Amino acid sequence: MKHTTVVAGLEVQVFTTDAFKTSTKPILALFVLHGRLGSTESENVRSLITTVVKAAGEHEGEKDLMIVAFDHRNHGTRLRSKAANLGFEENDNHASDMYSILAKDVSFLIDFLESYLFPAAERRVVEWGVAGISLGGHSAWMVAAADPRVTLVVPIIGCPDYLGLIEARATALGIAIGPPHFPDSLMKVLKAKALTALPYRSTAGENPFLGKKVLVLSGGSDPVVPWAASRAFVEGLEVGPRGSKEVKVFEGVGHAVGQGMVDGLVAFVLGDLACGRMF
Fold first, then answer.
1. Which residues form a coiled coil (predicted)?
2. Phi-psi region of 82 (alpha: psi -120 to 50; beta: other; left: phi over 0)
3. SS in 3 state form for the chain?
4. φ/ψ (deg, to 5) at 26
């Protein structure tokens, strides 16, 4: 089932199983975010959503699944400038343009979506998750680090190290890491907001991934978001004894959502639905 609502001018699509309407179970709300140059109508996004919802409908769990999708800023129904979504070859502002749209609306929707969907508190979302493809995968990492309410994270062909990824992309094209492609003001923001995954026993600061369930799905032959850009962060990521981390790197797979990635996401979500309430 698909339901469309508008939250503060943002069109939001909600996908549920047929049984969801009459159920009273607690809810896992999973955002599924599309990639750059795509939208909620992209084939890989719709196929992924359809597959996960179908599997959830055939699965008896302790929680119900609700998938939430929306267009990233300057994409789909929100497109204002096609040029701003292009890479360095055609867009000097690529580093700024891509970073500035990442993950901006997920926490906003977590704040308000329940009041639109369940105004009389008919249902309760007890867990929030984010899965994303490419640009959506970058966003999944960022929102998981920034928002403690997000406890389930599935970056698909995405990267947690935006600065390292974008610098490598520029260097490969012979672009200097400095103005005009990398303004000083942008570099300050990127360095200040760079993700960290501190050891869970560290006294240096709080690790934002503690207790979270993380599934990383990457292509071993991805030329756009290479696994090498994510490896150090992911391998060093600590989620503590209450969290979980699973990493799947699919050899021979490029910048695409392979069947193994879809199967991995389905198994991960079904396993979470089988668990009881989370508060």
1. none
2. alpha
3. CEEEEEECCEEEEEEECHHHHHCCCCEEEEEEECCCCCCCCCHHHHHHHHHHHHHHHCCCCCCEEEEEECCCCCCHHHCCCCHHHCCCCCCCCHHHHHHCCCCCCHHHHHHHHHHHHCCCCCCCEEEEEEEEECHHHHHHHHHHHHCCCEEEEEEECCCCCHHHHHHHHHHHCCCCCCCCCCCHHHHHHHHHCCCCCCCCCCCCCCCCCCCCEEEEEEECCCCCCCHHHHHHHHHHCCCCCCCEEEEEEECCCCCCCCHHHHHHHHHHHHHHHCCCCCC
4. -65, 160
Tokens of residue 201, six digits? 């026993």
pLDDT beyond 50 at 279: no
Closest CA to 195 of 242, 247, 155, 248: 155
| Inter-residue long-range contacts of 175-179, CB under 8 Å, 24+ positions, other chains counted | 175/88
pLDDT value, residue 104: 83
pTM of the model: 0.94
Q: Which tokens belong to 13? A: 């699509």
Rounded Cα distance, 105 and 24, in Å = 27
Edge-to-edge strand order for the sheet containing 125-133? Answer: 2-7, 10-16, 64-69, 27-33, 125-133, 150-156, 213-219, 244-250
How do residues 265-278 score in pLDDT, each as one tens digit?
999 999 999 986 55
pLDDT over 70 (residue 258): yes
Q: What is the pLDDT of residues 115-124, one digit of tens each?
A: 999 999 999 9
Class of domain 2-273: alpha beta
**Residue found by looking up tokens 């303004």 in the block:** 183
Q: How far is CA 184 from the centre of its chain?
A: 27
